[in-house]
Automatic annotation (TrEMBL):
<dbReference type="GO" id="GO:0016829">
    <property type="term" value="F:lyase activity"/>
</dbReference>
<dbReference type="InterPro" id="IPR004360">
    <property type="entry name" value="Glyas_Fos-R_dOase_dom"/>
</dbReference>
<keyword id="KW-0560">Oxidoreductase</keyword>
<protein>
    <submittedName>
        <fullName>Catechol 2,3-dioxygenase-like lactoylglutathione lyase family enzyme</fullName>
    </submittedName>
</protein>
<dbReference type="InterPro" id="IPR037523">
    <property type="entry name" value="VOC_core"/>
</dbReference>
<dbReference type="Pfam" id="PF00903">
    <property type="entry name" value="Glyoxalase"/>
</dbReference>
<keyword id="KW-0223">Dioxygenase</keyword>
<dbReference type="GO" id="GO:0051213">
    <property type="term" value="F:dioxygenase activity"/>
</dbReference>
<keyword id="KW-0456">Lyase</keyword>
<dbReference type="InterPro" id="IPR029068">
    <property type="entry name" value="Glyas_Bleomycin-R_OHBP_Dase"/>
</dbReference>
<feature type="domain" description="VOC">
    <location>
        <begin position="3"/>
        <end position="147"/>
    </location>
</feature>
Amino acid sequence: MFRYVHTNIIANDPDKLIAFYKEVFQCKSIGEERDLKGQWLDRLTGLHNVHITGEHLLLPGYGEDHPTLEIFSYDAIRESVTGEVNRPGIAHLAFEVDDVETTLELMIRAGGSQVGELVTADYPNNTEAVFVYARDPEGNIIELQSWRQKA
């Protein structure tokens, strides 16, 4: 069996980031809070005396228990490097929304910021898409997208 389970974000302020994803993207608590430590976790992470806390949030639009956005924090966090859209590795999370402009405004009011310009692009079959890149309060890049038939 194969199935996608979760994406993990390490947060400086997990409570603030959890609240942001609940408010802006309607992610939901599903009772999967974590307070993890022990030799098994040290072996898994390759770190010594590691302690992780956080929560799994149900992503909107799918099942009742998966996939989730896992927002964790370590007791000891390394200096972060601001993500860029062209940096190797996982570049962004994408959410399809009803209204990109309204969601972007909500993101900014909740502590996020805009990266580039909001654009509209033509696609086949008389379809257009609206896109914008933005950042959550900790700098993680999020793509907002909306698809519609041209009038």
